[in-house]
Design brief:
Radius of gyration: 31 Å
Shape: globular
CATH topology of the largest domain: Rossmann fold
CATH architecture of the largest domain: 3-Layer(aba) Sandwich
Number of strands: 14
CATH class of the largest domain: Alpha Beta
Helix content: 40-55%
Strand content: 5-15%
Number of helices: 16
CATH superfamily of the largest domain: Alpha/Beta hydrolase fold, catalytic domain
Oligomer: single chain
């Protein structure tokens, strides 16, 4: 699609064709009604019997079915032409708007899309000192409009070609074919259910014109924003609406809390010592929850305003403790894609810290590959994480409940990625490694690399049990990380840990085996993972310190570079 073709496109021709098919559809419907009345009903009321009558009745019944199928196919052609007119008209409007803005800014757009302007400040036609930035923005809009038109053209052409083939070879007279075609057309207007295979979701999305996609984003943003298989840019647009509305709802709830109740009840009110007022306790808890979520919202808003690297909001809601998924750089176009799964305490309020870590990992990956390839790091708080070390973080139910969500998200990353498949990594921290390990053990993950940082156990005894080559499994544990003291779940592992430790202290065991809450410690040699170096004094949260050995090593692991 080029500028002239889109600019000169006569939408009236599409509308006229659509109206013609509507007329044909109506006329064909009347023909079927007349045929039913004049032929079928008359024969049905006749006294014709016998073998020939039976054969004729069967054929007439079959012919009636074929006529209804043909009518249904004609209606689908009309709908396709209507969608074409809407899609091309929207793209044409976007193009004309961009060209008008170019002209108003004293710029000339060439047929190939190149933009030129007068750069002489003394000239009456001088385009201004911000002309270059303006030209880039207009050029992007022109490219987008052409892409919209091309997508609509390809999408509608495919639909019409199928219907034309059906009409040519006679399959359009088959009721099953017509029913399937109608179901496919109807499905375009229905958002796939949550949990639908992401590849099918992507195919559905591709079948919509750009105008239909934009309408879906505006009307179905709450469902599209959480649907794996929707491309990152569209998912981002939907979640921007979800973010804005979520913020408005949080503010309404804060405003509706009312004045603070008195904190304590008096001796007279309780017939005993003063105690905290239950109304105050409930009010305070609600306010703190809302303020925490608002903190997360504002952190996301601040991150979205940063240009380098650009952020994409791939998930957002305020249910429970709140959830959010934010990618640094577009995962659909990046060469390397890493999903970072935080652990205990992860919730909407903690997005700021975790997004900072993703930004640091992108910078580390860029350094590792010499800025030759792009890296996207996705902060994934898409599950309900334990909020306390005990008893919640000692319970693997949170990990089990996250398995389908993490698997679906990873499948979605594969389904929406453009061009050559990316090098994908899943990186867990603390309880997040348990989520990663359990998911890989029970569901499998379509990733190339696994990084387990400060793990209390990944639910497996050996790296090979994760479903990828042990040489692509990496583990890090700092020398000052309290996670190494996590008690094992099974009693026999207490004895094993003690025996190995004693043997190590005695000098009879070089590398003591060690089990933690959810299986063997991934950082011990017996687990079989590649050890990631850490800086001296690294504690449970210190792996992302700027200049640290662990941060550098994570960048290397994410890009597939040798660990230095």
């Amino acid at each position: 699609m080029d500028i002239k073709t889109l600019y000169d496109a006569d939408i009236n021709n599409l509308t006229t064709a659509k109206n013609a098919y509507d007329t044909l559809f109506s006329a064909f419907g009347r023909h079927i009604e007349n045929w039913q009345h004049e032929v079928v009903d008359r024969l049905g009321h006749s006294e014709w019997t016998g073998t020939a009558a039976g054969h004729a009745g069967t054929r007439i019944q079959s012919l009636g079915t074929e006529l209804q199928a043909a009518k249904q196919e004609l209606g689908l052609i009309s709908k396709a032409l209507s969608d074409a007119a809407e899609g091309i008209a929207a793209a044409q409007a976007h193009l004309i708007s961009a060209l008008d803005d170019a002209r108003n800014n004293k710029m000339t757009v060439a047929p190939d899309g190149g933009i030129t302007w007068n750069k002489d400040p003394d000239s009456a036609d001088y385009a201004g000192d911000k002309a270059e930035a303006t030209a880039k923005e207009i050029s992007k809009r022109i490219t987008t409009a052409l892409s919209e038109a091309d997508h609509t053209d390809r999408t509608i052409s495919a639909r019409l070609a199928k219907l034309a083939t059906n009409a040519t070879n006679g399959t359009g007279l088959d009721s099953a074919t017509a029913k399937a075609d109608q179901a496919a057309a109807d499905a375009l207007g229905q958002v796939p259910a949550a949990g639908t295979d992401p590849t099918s979701v992507k195919a559905w999305w591709n079948g919509l014109t750009d105008a239909q996609q934009q309408r879906m984003i505006q009307t179905e943003h709450d469902r599209l924003g959480a649907l794996d298989g929707i491309p990152a840019t569209a998912r981002h647009q939907a979640n921007l609406i979800n973010l804005r509305r979520g913020k408005e709802d949080l503010q309404r709830q804060l405003d509706g809390l009312g004045p603070e109740p008195k904190k304590m009840l008096s001796v007279a009110e309780t017939n005993g010592g003063p105690v905290e007022n239950p109304d105050y306790t409930a009010w305070k808890k609600k306010r703190e929850d809302l303020e925490e979520k608002m903190k997360g919202v504002k952190a996301i808003e601040a991150r979205l305003k940063k240009d380098e690297p650009p952020a994409f909001l791939l998930g957002f809601d305020t249910k429970g403790h709140g959830h959010a998924i934010v990618a640094a750089n577009n995962p659909d176009t990046a060469d390397n894609v890493s999903t970072y799964v935080p652990g205990t305490g992860s919730r909407l309020a903690e997005m700021g810290t975790n997004m900072d870590r993703s930004d640091l990992m992108v910078a580390s990956a860029d350094e590792a590959n010499g800025h030759r390839k792009t890296t996207s790091s996705v902060t994934w708080i898409g599950y309900d994480a334990p909020q306390s070390i005990f008893p919640e973080a000692a319970d693997d139910t949170y990990a089990k409940n996250a398995e389908s969500k993490l698997r679906g998200f990873q499948d979605g990353l594969r389904a929406t990625h453009e061009g050559k498949p990316s090098n994908n990594t899943v990186l867990g921290h603390s309880y997040g490694t348990t989520v990663v390990g359990y998911t890989m053990r029970d569901k499998g993950l379509p990733v190339d690399n696994v990084v387990l940082v400060a793990s209390p156990g990944a639910g497996v005894e050996h790296a090979r049990d994760l479903g990828v080559a042990p040489s692509r499994v990496y583990a890090a544990q700092g020398d000052d990380d309290i996670i190494q003291n996590t008690p094992p779940e099974q009693a026999e592992n207490w004895v094993s840990n003690f025996t190995n430790n004693v043997g190590h202290w005695a000098g009879s065991v070089d590398s003591p085996d060690h089990h933690l809450a959810f299986g063997r410690d991934p950082s011990v040699p017996q687990f079989g993972a590649v050890a990631l170096p850490t800086s001296p004094g690294t504690d449970h949260s210190g792996y992302w310190e700027k200049g640290s050995r662990s941060l550098r090593a994570m960048g290397e692991a994410i890009t597939g570079r040798p660990i230095s």
